[in-house]
Amino acid sequence: MQTQYINEMLNLPELKINQVLSINADELHIEAEPLCDKQCCPCCGSDQAVIRKGSNNIRIVRHLSVFEKKTYLHVPSTRLLCTRCKAGFVWMYEFVGPKQRYSRLFRSHTAEQAFGSTAAHSARMQQAPVSTVQRIHNEAVPVEYERICEQVWEEAKETADLVLGVDDFAIKKGHAYNTGIHNLKGETMLDLLPGRKLEELRSYAQEHPDFLLLNPKAVVLNLARAYHTWISECFPNAIRIADRFHVHGYVIESVQEVRKTVQNTLSSRAKAHLKANHRLLNPPAESLGEESKKRWEALLNYSPLLRSVWEWKEAFTTWYDCSPDLAIARLGFERWCEQGDRIDHAAVRSALKTMRNWKEEIVNYHHCRWTNATVEGRHNRIKAFQRRHYFTRNRSRYKAGILIECNRHRILG
């Protein structure tokens, strides 16, 4: 290969390729030198009085792989002297930092590959030590975190009719939780705060004035009282919407409680059949295939009570999907509650009590139809991150890693 084309492939315009020193199955060694003769003095900023004072040992720098071979650049470590300032210095290359053995392109590519992956996987791809990749990744995380946070917060402040989503996820289920704040319109995660208790939420708002400067049109929440109290204090004019996923979960849970009651009254064969296929009662009927519909119809024939509670659940889905405006949604919600009152079961009565307590927040869905569906998907991404990083103990690095993980695909996209 002609040496004049190697530099284009390496993307290093400041260097001139002299020769290929060696090439084997795994490594490629290339000798190069700077195009310029002199550099500006770091003290006076001029190259008029700069002279060469010899050279140190050859500097070997790892660069991006070429043809799947590890590529090493051999460049001179030239000593320079400014006769005006009497300052001695060594030639500074743009493609590599001082006292570094890996080029800037190699470091940026390695860090990019380590995001969304593990250091061990990136090290195998780059044919580099795991400790080196881990160090490069750790150095890149704070810079990327600052860039992404600035961008997502600026986008949230400029978004018209901003809609926020607030939900928690477990670090250790039943013991420790984090709360995420999300921009649903921008599809980004704004921040992550420890805990989910009201005191912790209020403390966050006091310590982060940028959060209070947001002007959301609506906030989507689950049915935790602490979240609704906190949002009403921070954004009293925002519409609080009970997340459809969580609300529907209460209804499905009552259906399954009724199923368990009916199951205990059946013969052993029917009981086993109902238990094995109980998940067919959860999704809407139109989403089932032909074979699933046959089994589902057999389940409903076991008991009129089971059929009536299933129809009540389906009516709730229809109410969510088909209410054209807020006024009709209020009337439809009352009719749905009256339908549930005719079902004589403790689980249904308990669900209806919850629904009536949160009536305003549930009906507010029909102000603007937003849910935390994207937030739930983001929680799966966070759980994968936690498994890959073995629950990083450093809180700042843990938070930075999650915000990068949840936002980079959206920012880069």
Automatic annotation (TrEMBL):
Pfam families on file = DDE_Tnp_ISL3, Zn_ribbon_ISL3
Span of domain Transposase IS204/IS1001/IS1096/IS1165 zinc-finger: 39-85
What InterPro entries does this protein map onto?
A: Transpos_ISL3, Transposase_DDE, Transposase_Znf
**Domain Transposase IS204/IS1001/IS1096/IS1165 DDE span(s) in chain numbering:** 164-400
> Which protein is depicted?
Transposase
The lineage, from the top, is:
Bacteria, Bacillati, Bacillota, Bacilli, Bacillales
